[in-house]
Amino acid sequence: MPGLRASPPAFLLLLVLVFPRGSPAAPGAGQELEPGSRSAVAAARVALHYGNFQARSLGGLRALGQVRKATLKNIPESGHKYYLQFSTEDYRTGEDAGNCLATVLYPKKKSPPVVSIKCSHTKDKKEIQEEDNRFYQRIRHQSKPITGNNIPDSYGNIEPALEPVWALAVAGSSSIMWEKSTETLGYFLAQVKSVRQWVRKDDFTEFDYTVLLHEIPTQEIISCHMRLTWLPGHPLKVKHFCASNADEGSGAESGSAAGPSAEKGAKF
Amino acid sequence: MRDQLSLLTMRLPVLLAALVAVAACTETFVGHQVLRVVPQSDEELQKVQELQDLEHLQLDFWLAPRRLGLPVDIHVPFPSLQAVKAHLEAGGVSYSIMIEDVQALLDEEQTEMLRSSRQLPLSTETFNYEAYHTIDEIYNFMDMLVAENPNLVSKLEIGRSTENRPLYVLKFSTGGTNRPAVWIDTGIHSREWVTQASGVWFAKKIVQDHANNEGVASILETMDIFLEIVTNPDGFAFTHTKNRLWRKTRSKHSGSICVGVDPNRNWDAGFGEAGASGNPCTETYHGPYPNSEPEVKSIVDFVKSHGNIKAFVSIHSYSQLLLYPYGYTSAPAPDQQELHEVSAKAVAALSSLYGTKYKYGSIITTIYRASGGTIDWTYNQGIKYSFTFELRDTGRYGFLLPAKQIVPTAQETWLGLKVIMEHARDNLY
């Protein structure tokens, strides 16, 4: 005997009417986004870049799992603000690493996204600290300054001896990727092209990196030079300089006269 | 010597730009040298130590200056070479060039490593599907596959690349004349190595299924399968020799020093509109006109002359997505609903194997606006079941997917492909 409850599809229809999608978010009102939508996923990624950099730890590095909930608000005079809930995985092992709540504000003017992020842990703080200390000891107990190229290599391999140095690169380049991210431009770490350790007299470890970032949607590979200092428990210090693509081919006129405008970047 | 260095400081912005241009255009270590100095006096030691303070020279001391008589090895980037040598010579400090070109040495090492670990397989049974291969190894694999299965597999040359490499397509057919067909291509973007590797696996899988009368054997009763494994051979060769992250073709069009066209922006569907770049130096450069790239034109000609292709799947990595048209417009494809349903089924089948999570939808809503794309053109030609896969992963390794993930990726993707092929077979139009 059919019940009198509203059937699920009808209820969803009601939700859709209350939270219309496709219309621009009115100031003050939040627009619920499809959790799988690319803007929600991109914002979650930005939040994680920031979180990975701020966490000042290698053992606690996270990769994005699934976005569970996403809302977008237009903050007048400020910019677009995303409210996110997402799951994460341990960057190294892929194991579940807990959930995060985050907000990401893309400012109207050109400046890094403003991020707040809070995550639960599946690893307890002590475990993470121990992992960091192990990474630290592995770096300190080398007989000569660490150098490396192409991490991972062309075949996706990372030499076990270079794992701590790769983890450090992920943490450090997260700061670069967070800073550069906009609502339309996102980044992934494609490869550590080179790394060289600077020997210091104090306890800090210091490295020079060349990292290659993969930029979406332009598909460009951005080369960044990064100078990084780290000591477990201390904030990661990163100085960076990224090559700008404007240099490539500058001075050479494009031969293409196709289309009304000379250059259309991949944009949406 | 002091003057040399202060001149260097004045020219700093130019030098930095040169270093940046070098780093951006080619490999990081081209022209770099490693110099060895063995200081014999306090004055010589001081001259070398002075170099350490000059950060803008971007020197990197493989062996730092310590005491007299101990070697100092200095890795000098190309733009700083002249200044460093002048500084040493002016101070009467002798040096030797330990490494003439750091990049050349790295390349050589790489090639040697690979050469020593490779043995030519004797058959497709001993071929290593769990490793990445070179063009020659893949072309050799194709010949072996044809030789072992002459009644099922043939190799067609549909054209030549810019650098005159043959463009090979494997045809899997149990007979008939111009049967309705499925097309699959991998490696159109050369840096997406898991795709060519999966293509090799697919080829073997088709042969195995046929031999065991399971899987796609039933599809082969009424349809042919065409598989182009190395769709962009020039780019692929380049990823092995010079730049692992090369994406485009290797064509040079007049008026630019930059090389290459994005073969997935070069098709005649919304060509040149928003979602591609008109700048030859960018990764999404659409080229001077549609089908300017022989890699693209050869497929266009093949599809048109065949005339009976019913499903077209172009395979990329990474992002874990299954996409259908359109990319160049937000107008929904007329068959959107059916394509969406097929995608849902294909993704469910794919995920069933290892739990790999995929998203699906039209290109423009799911990934980004992209014009001049392959499946937008094939769809507009009337090939209803036009799909693009973006394989593993979601960014942790990206293009540099560890080789041990090749077979799992190919296996799960194959399940999704079978759903599409079966749907095409059961819904011929």
UniProtKB/TrEMBL annotation, chain A:
Single GO molecular-function term? Answer: metalloendopeptidase inhibitor activity
Its keywords, alphabetically, are: Protease inhibitor, Repeat, Signal
The residues the entry assigns to the signal sequence are 1-25
Asked if the keyword Ubl conjugation belongs to this entry, the reply reads: no
Q: Which residues belong to any copy of the Cystatin LXN-type domain? A: 29-127, 147-250
Q: Which Gene Ontology cellular component annotation is one that this UniProt entry carries?
A: extracellular space
Tell me any Pfam family this protein matches: LXN
Q: Which Gene3D superfamilies match?
A: 3.10.450.10
Stretches for region Disordered = 249-268
Where does the source fall among the domains of life? Eukaryota
Q: Does the keyword Repeat apply?
A: yes
Q: Which family does it belong to?
A: Belongs to the protease inhibitor I47 (latexin) family.
Q: Which PANTHER family match?
A: LATEXIN (PTHR28591), RETINOIC ACID RECEPTOR RESPONDER PROTEIN 1 (PTHR28591:SF2)
* Name of the protein this chain belongs to: Cystatin LXN-type domain-containing protein
Tell me which species this is from: Hirundo rustica rustica
Automatic annotation (TrEMBL), chain B:
GO biological process terms held by the UniProt record: proteolysis
Q: What are the EC numbers? A: 3.4.17.1
GO cellular component terms, alphabetically, are: extracellular space
Cross-referenced Pfam families? Peptidase_M14, Propep_M14
Coiled coil regions, renumbered to chain: none
Q: What class of enzyme is it?
A: hydrolase
Q: Which residues form the signal peptide?
A: 1-25
Q: In which family does this protein belong, per the annotation? A: Belongs to the peptidase M14 family.
Q: What name is this protein filed under? A: Carboxypeptidase A1
